[in-house]
Amino acid sequence: MIKKGIRRQIVMHYFIVVFSTLLLAEVIFLFAIRSYYYDSIYSHITQHIKLMEEYQKFITTSDDGRTDLANLLSNYKLNYTELQILNMQGDVLINSSEFQPDVSIKTSDISQAQSGNIGRWVGRQPITGEDVMAVSKMEQTNGQDTYIVRYVTSLERVNEKLLNVTLLATGVAAAVLALVLAFSLGLANSIVKPLNTITAVSAQMARGKFNVRIKGDYKYELGELASTLNYMAQEIVRSNQVKDDFISSISHELRTPLTSIKGWSETINSGGYDPEETKIGMEIITKETERLIGLVEEILDFSKLQQNEMKVVFGRVDLKELLQEIMLNLWTKAEKRSIQLRLDSVDKPLVEGDANRLKQVFLNLVDNAIKFSHENSFIDLQVTFEGNNVVVKVHDTGIGISEDHLVKVKDRFFQVDPLNGGTGLGLAISQQLVELHHGILLIQSELGVGTTIVVRLPRLLEEEQAEGLQATPYELPDGDQGIHES
């Protein structure tokens, strides 16, 4: 007995379908064979009757004008068949066998013959108990005497042949079912065994063993499933590695400013210092503290975005003014590396969004461009209209990003160059903030040539500008609530 499972379901479905098909085909086949044999017997008797009717026209009658029943019986007789001559009431007047029925025959062939048709009846002979076929036809002699000529033939030999055919057909069907059963078991095993392998490997993955892989060249959906699970394990391993790298990196990022703060704090507390040295130490403590705050805020922002808890206040934002402000904020940093920031913008590129969050996005993009650009180079900020969108492009001619890194650069914790510091969350946060504004962030880059980052945001149309600003509740994805100004 096959235990419950996919194997049993496949075998049972195949078996039921094939069994039903074979049963239907066998019933139709046996019915057709039976009809063929029975119709052949009936056709043979009716042909004989027609020939005898033609012959009977030339037979002379007795002196009193009546046909002799014995002659009629002799003329109409048929080999291996009992012939009965009946009157119109169904009483047997004479027959070719030694058995003489003492009751009237009331079978359906008699009533059909009485109505002028050739009657046919298949049933069991009351006297002998064997299966027979009776064919009856009303005959008129000399225009005055009317009789019913009835042929009764045994079907035992025919039924025996039909039984042999039935047994043969049943044997063939049983052999086909056995073959189908073996085939379905093989098919089920070809599906279940890979599934068992995949299940076993998945169980190991569930226990944290992500170094295992599903081996085997599986086809179709099973192959896709195996490939997907292997890819999942590979991505989990990669994510864990990225997470570990992030923890290592953020630990270093946090340790450096904390070490500076601690060192200068101890120096100041120890006494014996001059005012100029104290000023330098306090500036370093302030700078490193701001750096720590920035790192913590970046991590907190990412956490809020992941949990859909980021609060946004939507209003009218002029991207040209926003970018000019960002250029002023980063001018000193760019000036230290002799990098020139250039802005080319259309008038009034208005969008609906949170000015602080959009500033966070473009600050991160421009800051990255400065970080990875060569000295004495340019960074171009371009703002244009494309249909109902405002498109902002941040282009630099820096080190660029390789194709391998380009597909991962927006992943959380990923850093193209870990030595440059940071959490690896900047682009991931920017991506999600742009999506919160129903926009798109694209990165185009070529290693050694430069990078262009494209941000496409829905444009605030004139009719929307004319409505003015009014704060209304705004629902973020997954039910998060914020403030929406329109």
UniProtKB/TrEMBL annotation:
One of its GO terms (molecular function) is ATP binding. It is an enzyme of class 2 (transferase). It is a multi-pass membrane protein. The chain crosses the membrane at residues 12-33, 165-188. InterPro entries: HAMP_dom, HATPase_C_sf, HATPase_dom, His_kinase_dom, HisK_dim/P_dom, HisK_dim/P_sf, Sig_transdc_His_kin-like_C. The keyword Cell membrane applies. It holds the Pfam family HAMP. One of its GO terms (cellular component) is membrane raft. Residues 249-461 form the Histidine kinase domain. This is histidine kinase. The lineage of its organism: Bacteria, Bacillati, Bacillota, Bacilli, Bacillales.
